[in-house]
Design a protein that fits this description.
Layout lengths: L6 E5 L4 H15 L9 E8 L6 E10 L2 E8 L9 H15 L4 E7 L4 H6 L3 E8 L4 E9 L10 E3 L4 H19 L6 E8 L6 E10 L2 E8 L9 H15 L4 E6 L2 H9 L3 E8 L4 E9 L2
Parallel strand pairs: 4-5, 11-12
Antiparallel strand pairs: 1-9, 2-3, 2-8, 3-4, 5-7, 6-7, 9-10, 10-11, 12-14, 13-14
């Protein structure tokens, strides 16, 4: 690699090309078997009956037998009406139709763990975050097939207006409860070819309320075993500490990757079984000193 050592850059400005490469390359390089469940995005939208304006909803995705519930938001006027339960049920039913066997989500300790527990979710683990005394609560639920009557729309097509409404509404709700606005920021570490500047791999993540979320890590085979993975994570963690994060969270389904993450200071705190049988998604955390 003399004279052609890859370039690593760190940024909170998303690079669509790099993100697509890391997102697409990551599963392809770590799964030696054909997926047995259908993956894709999942959007449930709640519309105002009079104006048809999107007022809330759910943003999620399915992957490798799991439903990931990323964002859930309803305005105060619709809370306690059963709409939240109906949304979760529809998302779970769609996930089961795609072959998913479990659902995963995280909420904040002051937010909705009791609501999700009432729907059958159990706590998988907690990670302390800001403000002091607050934790991210990671929860999971086994999915069993049952019939429900659809009431709101389900889609795997992105709807920018709907996503803005859900994200914006949830952030405003958390702001009202915490007294501080969301400080979510993307974080990218990109490995580039020194000759063409084209992205070769990297880390995609984000920071939020004192936590670094490591969402994707990918390197092509030619760059594995060179120390780049540790350097990429180190750069991401250093930037997270600069943003006053106190811990990092990630998950992996590759046992070799879990061994690597353990070597660089991460510790497993929970696992969820996924397809195929015998496989699991391992959740890991690291205190950032």
């Amino acid at each position: 690699m003399a004279g052609r050592e890859p370039i690593l850059t760190l940024s909170d400005a998303p690079d669509a090309t790099a993100e697509a490469l890391i997102d697409d390359g990551s599963p392809a390089s770590t799964i030696p078997w054909r997926a047995t469940a259908t993956g894709g995005r999942c959007r449930l939208l709640v519309h105002d009956r009079a104006t048809r304006e999107v007022v809330g909803g759910l943003v999620g995705r399915t992957s490798l037998g799991l439903l990931f519930v990323d964002l859930v938001y309803l305005p105060d006027s619709l809370r306690g009406t059963g709409v939240g339960t109906r949304m979760m049920t529809m998302a779970e039913d769609e996930a089961k139709r795609r072959g998913c066997v479990a659902a995963l989500l995280y909420t904040i300790s002051f937010q909705a763990p009791d609501f999700y527990a009432g729907l059958g979710y159990r706590e998988l683990g907690r990670v302390a975050c800001l403000p002091p005394g607050t934790s991210r609560v990671i929860m999971t639920k086994r999915l069993r097939r049952r019939m429900t009557e659809p009431v709101v729309t389900v889609s795997d097509a992105e709807d920018a207006a709907a996503e803005t409404a859900i994200r914006g509404g949830l952030r405003a709700h958390n702001h009202a409860m915490l007294g501080t606005p969301s400080d979510i920021r993307p974080l990218q570490v990109v490995v580039r070819d020194p000759a063409t500047n084209a992205p070769l791999g990297g880390v995609l993540g984000h920071t939020l309320r004192g936590l670094l979320f490591v969402d994707f890590v990918y390197l092509p085979d030619a760059l594995r075993g060179t120390g780049l993975a540790a350097r990429m994570l180190g750069m991401a963690e250093d930037e997270a500490k600069r943003r006053r994060c106190t811990a990092a969270v990630l998950y992996t389904l590759n046992p070799k990757s879990a061994t690597f993450y353990t070597r660089v200071g991460y510790r497993a705190f929970g696992a969820v079984e996924v397809a195929p049988p015998g496989s699991s998604r391992t959740y890991m955390r690291k205190v950032l000193g």
